Amino acid sequence: xxxxxxxxxxxxxxxxxxxxxxxxxxxxxxxxxxxxxxxxxxxxxxxxxxxxxxxxxxxxxxxxxxxxxxxxxxxxxxxxxxxxxxxxxxxxxxxxxxxxxxxxxxxxxxxxxxxxxxxxxxxxxxxxxxxxxxxxxxxxxxxxxxxxxxxxxxxxxxxxxxxxxxxxxxxxxxxxxxxxxxxxxxxxxxxxxxxxxxxxxxxxxxxxxxxxxxxxxxxxxxxxxxxxxxxxxxxxxxxxxxxxxxxxxxxxxxxxxxxxxxxxxxxxxxxxxxxxxxxxxxxxxxxxxxxxxxxxxxxxxxxxxxxxxxxxxxxxxxxxxxxxxxxxxxxxxxxxxxxxxxxxxxxxxxxxxxxxxxxxxxxxxxxxxxxxxxxxxxxxxxxxxxxxxxxxxxxxxxxxxxxxxxxxxxxxxxxxxxxxxxxxxxxxxxxxxxxxxxxxxxxxxxxxxxxxxxxxxxxxxxxxxxxxxxxxxxxxxxxxxxxxxxxxxxxxxxxxxxxxxxxxxxxxxxxxxxxxxxxxxxxxxxxxxxxxxxxxxxxxxxxxxxxxxxxxxxxxxxxxxxxxxxxxxxxxxxxxxxxxxxxxxxxxxxxxxxxxxxxxxxxxxxxxxxxxxxxxxxxxxxxxxxxxxxxxxxxxxxxxxxxxxxxxxxxxxxxxxxxxxxxxxxxxxxxxxxxxxxxxxxxxxxxxxxxxxxxxxxxxxxxxxxxxxxxxxxxxxxxxxxxxxxxxxxxxxxxxxxxxxxxxxxxxxxxxxxxxxxxxxxxxxxxxxxxxxxxxxxxxxxxxxxxxxxxxxxxxxxxxxxxxxxxxxxxxxxxxxxxxxxxxxxxxxxxxxxxxxxxxxxxxxxxxxxxxxxxxxxxxxxxxxxxxxxxxxxx
Length: 875
Description:
Helix content is 39%, strand content 17%. The strands form six sheets. Strands 1, 2, 5, 6, 7, 8, 9, 10, 13 and 14 form a ten-stranded mixed sheet that branches. A six-stranded parallel sheet has the order 17-16-15-18-19-20, sandwiched between helices.
């Protein structure tokens, strides 16, 4: 008989062992090696059996063992020291607190960093023991929280608690992906319910159409110093449909997906308000939306300001925008959530419409009003950008791609001026770097581990020690791969006799390439199979063999991705190569750690420029792995010719089939003639000296760049603090700033159709020379606007054959005297700083002290046709 409900009964610890619960309920154990050592010592065999899950460990350890530990004075001393270390970690000032202490004293304090930041994400990869992630977005979010904790950044995180996580992957006999959704009991996770002062669980409620309501309880996880609030709709107050809203990550579609995102955004803001009320935590000044899934948080904040502060919708919108950061993670339109407009109308209109947040305004926020936009859909990323004054991509290349993708939201501005910046992702070293590498670096270059300084000392690491560590990590990967491979084959129905070959699969002394990621088509899992026989010859080379370890999940609804997995599995099943190439199902954080630590080379071959960032190669680099990648995402900006190999990209040069053929051929050639040759080029002592020099160069140069500590510091200085300053400027004096900016925008927008550049002329030398100046005079009709409302600028620089300005510079012109018919004349002198083809133009843009960027309004006035000197030869 099967149980109809599964739940976890937590053990009662003997009094001397109570600090264990304190350690377990803070997820710092997932990246703190000393805490993990202590937990392992509770029962080493059981620790391995439960997959390093401390809650399961204490649930399954025998009472006799607990009593034994409670009487073990040495263990108790270690326990108290570890618990005290955690308490010190949670309370002592860290990097962020030094910023607060150095903020200007007195006055309004507007220059100080944010007192709190709310961080919203649909998924988080904190640890494999808390399976609430599917891929890179969640892993990045987890690394962001852990690093914020290490740096003392006061983030409150918000997400959903999925009762079945993403999915567990296995394979059928013929290699087809199968999905399972094992139930997750929150009581078996390192979580506690958020409760009011009277002990009652906190509930957040969202009104739905037809008088229904969606209720959710709030689970609290502690990620070091960061509180993480996870909303869970599986409560008795809900009907069955509502209880299933948080059933699985990225499950379902239509209504189900929309309700998840409403709960995350709207419910998430309400959960934060409850948490701050109960705990006294400062209210967030900045709200960071990690992708568009949580975009509805802006609507809830607008509702709060309208209903509680008496602002109009437009005034509240300005206040909300000022304190909101939006990060886009995809350069692929298919990766953006887009809902039918009628679905939004159903949930935000009719009897569900809020008087404070009218349906029409909601629809306007998500409308694709740019060229080629679809008027029938509501775009969550577009709404996120309209609700945020600061928007960023996750690598320099992705920032450029995003400016092209979304440039239509900012009117007639050139792509380069679209206000979408970039902060390149980073990775959390404590989570992803092996203990052996950390110990080696700590011994030889201690300042790197202690303070993140002195990376060049890595070049002095003893090569025999480094090679030994790399070999140990490769062997560990081989052992784990064999274990997982055997388990997979048995799940596929293989007998014991059919899996005996696995004992010899892979080799700890063979060049090992890793390839693991989600499996959408643009990541090209099967590019390596373009020429199967050539791949076979590379794997089986008698002098320089290669082995490849592959992992990845396709979305359950992605039949094309599943076919790619089946294709790679069928090749890996071939008896002649199966000891050199393996596919390991159920890719998760635990397997990811083995891969990035144990592989010699991390391979990545997406269609450029469709990889927003990609962080697995960063993790491999910190562990002494080298990258072999298309120049996409982060690799495009940080490849230097000595830290790995760049696969030549044929994007834009050929059709898809021809492009794949060219790039696959380049991949094969690099592996055969460069990667393998260098790996197997050994000196008399058996060391690959050139290879190890590349490894040390990679760690020394990429180390300070790829760390999430660099990333989070960038967010604090470039986005969070400016957003906090802007938010205070809007809210001061009863939201006077928000009222002022909203009124100004309405006035400017109304007048703008009449703003015109009516005449442009220039004078100077008849034959302009380098170093000279060109006098520019412009007559402008401001249509009743005050000159302080605008900036009149000359744009100048090199031009191409069509007279388009290339990377122009800008000069603000100054008002001279009135012209006829209430026009104004502006003048300035353009410096001629470069020779060759040169040109200029002029424009008028709105200007206000509370705008974050001159393109923010999307309004620009240009001359109707080129005037004056548009092209000349400067000598």
